[in-house]
């Protein structure tokens, strides 16, 4: 049976949108006429090149990336477990839903400040604060995904007398994989932004720390250079890791259609 393979999005639309954004930025810089408050893309690219050549970019971006990775791993593990539990157990959902709503509405800044006050100005507090801000969102997404699991597959698992672990591995997780991938892609961008705030407030290295120093001297070109350099790193992770993973996670749905 022949299936029509959906076309993959090409590079041309994406590159065109980036070039359009650069053109608008260049026009805004030319219109402002003040390189200190609105530097051109070329000036910012020069700063990024200088940071990369000196090694400073790799040192601080690496520190930020490690915090992002640790927070991401903790948040995804806890969020997937809680979301699966709440989605499959009505009792757990009734008990935990009020706490989840509260956690969703506590400002990230409050969590960061309290973590630094209660734990101290250290890496444990930084990673904990970021993970706590991401866990509720992942929990909500996985709870809704768990509620959408197909009941006929559960009936099949019971008919074949599959144990809890076998059912989780072969029935539940494959259906949840698209939701996990979506939560990962949506969450990693949120995590790195919160990591910058954590570094801005209480760390001595990282991209957020450098932005803090540059903000005090109103160095707009430097702020943009650090921000865009790390955006490029996260874009690479999205294109090379998360997007292919999401495609593989959704493949079984296309094959089923």
Give the topology:
Elements: H1 11-32, H2 41-54, H3 56-88, H4 90-105, H5 108-119, H6 123-147, H7 151-159, H8 164-202, H9 207-216, H10 220-249, H11 251-256
Q: Keywords for this structure?
A:
globular, mainly alpha, MetI-like fold, 11 helices, 257 residues, 0% strand
Shape: globular
What's the architecture in CATH terms?
Orthogonal Bundle
Query: How many angstroms separate the termini?
Result: 12 Å
- Multimerization status: single chain
Helix content: over 70%
The CATH topology is: MetI-like fold
- Count of helical regions: 11
Task: Report on this structure.
The protein is mostly helical. The chain has eleven helices and no strands. The protein has helices at 11-32, 41-54, 56-88, 90-105, 108-119, 123-147, 151-159, 164-202, 207-216, 220-249, 251-256. 29% of the residues are buried. The mean pLDDT is 84.
């Amino acid at each position: 049976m022949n299936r029509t393979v959906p076309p993959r999005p090409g590079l041309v639309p994406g590159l065109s949108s980036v070039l359009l954004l650069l053109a608008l930025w260049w026009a805004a810089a030319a219109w402002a006429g003040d390189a200190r408050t609105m530097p051109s893309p070329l000036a910012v690219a020069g700063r990024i090149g200088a940071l990369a050549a000196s090694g400073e970019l790799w040192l601080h971006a690496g520190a930020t990336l490690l915090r992002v990775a640790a927070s991401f791993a903790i948040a995804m593990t806890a969020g997937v477990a809680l979301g699966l539990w709440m989605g499959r157990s009505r009792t757990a959902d009734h008990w935990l839903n009020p706490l989840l709503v509260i956690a969703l509405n506590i400002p990230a800044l409050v969590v960061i400040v309290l973590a630094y006050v209660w734990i101290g100005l250290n890496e444990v507090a930084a990673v904990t604060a970021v993970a706590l801000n991401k866990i509720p969102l992942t929990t909500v997404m996985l709870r809704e995904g768990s509620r959408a699991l197909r009941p006929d597959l559960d009936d099949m698992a019971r008919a074949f007398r599959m144990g809890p672990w076998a059912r989780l591995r072969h029935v539940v997780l494959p259906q949840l994989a698209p939701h996990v991938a979506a939560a990962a892609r949506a969450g990693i961008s949120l995590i790195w932004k919160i990591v910058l705030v954590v570094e801005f407030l209480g760390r001595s290295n990282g991209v957020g720390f450098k932005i803090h120093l540059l903000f005090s001297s109103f160095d707009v070109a430097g702020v943009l250079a650090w921000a865009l350099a790390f955006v490029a790193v996260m874009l690479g992770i999205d294109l090379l890791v998360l997007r292919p993973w999401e495609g593989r996670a959704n493949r079984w749905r296309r094959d089923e259609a």
